[in-house]
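Support request, please re-run this one:
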Amino acid sequence: MDLKVNTKYTHIFFDLDNTLWDFEKNSYLALKRIFSQYFPETTIAYDDFFEVYSKHNKQLWENYKNRQISKDNLVHSRFQRTFDELGLLDTDPLEMNSSYLSEMAKQKKLVDGAYEILDYLWLKKYQLFIITNGFEEVQIKKLKNTGIIGFFTKIFISEKVKVPKPGREIFEYAIKSANARKRKSLMIGDDFNSDIIGAVEFGMDAVYFANNGFSQQQREIIKNYGHGKKICTIEHLSSLKNIL
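Re-run finished. Output below.
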């Protein structure tokens, strides 16, 4: 089966952050605004703060996806570790986290071509879904504020399902809830391990949205699965029109 000429799919499952919603740009802008409110007199440059925060946040999210830590641990530790490393005192990490999430949900920058491809797929009568590892209160607001929530039949969020991607259980739950079949379903995402390997190991086909390129190791993994067989790669969302 070649994804490039395949017309069998009926159910399309998208990741949200960095696949449709531009997490990198939106999170940068949201945290910059909160940083200026919480630390108006600091000599620490925002970009330095953001770099340290991003380092801790990335590692903690990996731990969360691997079910090594809880959500509460994640949201507390990502700011507390940043404060500790930079010597920032007397700031409640949970309070800043709450402010940050509230501000982030207001950001509306979509990945280039996201709205257009959703409209294209919706007009072609595909059933569209979201499978995301984010937090429920934030992810729903993102979808509403960007005006794309109406494209989706159902939204599956790891916090509510109790299992993050790449866990098999979240894909199984989504397929059953969508009344879909694996062989007629396609997962599209930018996270190679969580979205792509998670979906393929579950039994779905997948499209890897390599918006930041991909490593030699990823190339070898794709080759082992058979490029264009179980995993297809794209660098722009508009390329989905060649598949769907």
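Residues 46-65 form the longest helix (20 residues). The chain has two domains: 3-22+110-242, 24-104.
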